[in-house]
Specification:
- The protein has two domains: 127 residues, 3-Layer(aba) Sandwich (Rossmann fold), CATH 3.40.50.10860; 122 residues, Rossmann fold.
- 38% of the residues lie in helices and 20% in strands.
- The strands form two sheets. It has a six-stranded mixed sheet with strand order 2-1-3-5-6-4, with helices on both faces. The protein has a six-stranded parallel sheet with strand order 9-8-7-10-11-12, with helices on both faces.
- Helix 1 links the parallel strand 1 and strand 2.
- Helix 5 crosses helix 6 and helix 5 crosses helix 10.
- It is globular.
Amino acid sequence: MSASQTMACVFGNPIEQSKSPIIHALFAEQFDIDLQYVKRFAEADAFAFSADEFFSLPNTIGANVTMPFKHDALKWVSSLSSQAKRAGAVNTIIRKGSIFEGDNTDGVGLVNDLKDHGVDLQGLNILVVGAGGAAKGVLPALIDAGTNQLSVYNRSADKAIALVNETNHYKDNIATVYDDAAYDEAKEGFDLIINATSLSLYGKLPQISDLVFSNKPVVYDMVYQPSPTVFMQKANSFGCTNNIDGLGMLVNQAAQSFYLWFGHYPEVGKVHQYLLANK
């Protein structure tokens, strides 16, 4: 590392699959920034130790945080942006001298990617599968985009209820808890299903009713892989033809993180196309 080289990283577990170093290298090239961006594996209970270790290095400007550390990062940072407070999760750390600010760019990344795929969120009924940091990070942006109704499904109903209650503080009655019986009683089906779990990384499916696919919704999996995820494959088997993985969200949320670190907003289209061509 040169004396002038800036450092950033992405924390995760697992982390081998991350494309963030490639994305940020391509962003840095756009502005002739000398950036070293690396992957940082952390043990499940050792995020704080890993973050302390990384930010003890000179020239560190910030970090991205992926599953399962978005709640750990929330506790580690010195201060929170309004978006991170609202989301209740941190995916971006910005170093400001001795202060470490936590922000959340997941929601912006998701909404922008859906727009890039021609999905207008205004008035949609959306099912979010999962109630962890990834789900918490995107719900505020989905609300702001004008969605009609948000339903949350999680294996642990208590976590789903807690997330729904928190979400409804920002807009009354926009969020509900989904279970199999609730769908039978619903007046309308879902227009968009978002898998906010990490299960697709392991080739596993959330245990959710097949009825969610009956309205032929748009299906979005936050996980990205070289081929369609198991969740996307299942949706396709039920006739859902508009299935999107999380690669575009990754690029868009990374662009917002890059802006928070450097004050320059990169062009994302060419970077996304590069990644698609090199899956």
